[in-house]
Amino acid sequence: MRVRAITAAVLIAGLGAVGVAIAAEEGTHEARSALMKKVGGAAGAMTAIAKGEKPYDAEAVKVALTTISETAKVFPDQFKPGTETGDKAASPKIWEDHADFKARAEKLSADAEKVLAQLPADAAGVGGALKTLGGNCGGCHEKYRIKTE
């Protein structure tokens, strides 16, 4: 049974990487949304563990952290010229300080990789990791996300 869980986790991680690679070529609002949903799903899986809603599962944590790290690496490339206009426009602030935007994504990726290298051993450790990663996400959203009602 454990081998099946590991195999499933590896398969999911691989498919996630393929999905990220495909989305990275698009540079559309839909591609950006899909990537953010991947990060949200990964964070949600970790949150369920941290809150005790799901049992601690090292493989699930690894898959989630890998998803966050890999997605953060390709996310800044989704903001192609022309995506700052239209009804699904990205925030113009992204282009005003693109170096900072990219650096924030790189920090999220690096922090996820650090946590992955020192994998939390329990739900409390997953919760601590989420505080760090969530701080990265929140800071970027505060500065660059267009708030909708």
From TrEMBL:
Biological process according to GO: electron transport chain
GO molecular function: electron transfer activity; heme binding; iron ion binding
First and last residue of the signal peptide: 1-23
SUPFAM superfamilies noted in UniProt: Cytochromes
InterPro entries named among the record's database cross-references: Cyt_c/b562, Cyt_c_II, Cyt_c_prime, Cyt_c_prime_subgr
Keyword Metal-binding included in the entry's annotation: yes
Metal-binding recorded as keyword: yes
Protein's name according to its UniProt entry: Cytochrome c-556
Residues annotated to bind heme c: C137, C140, H141
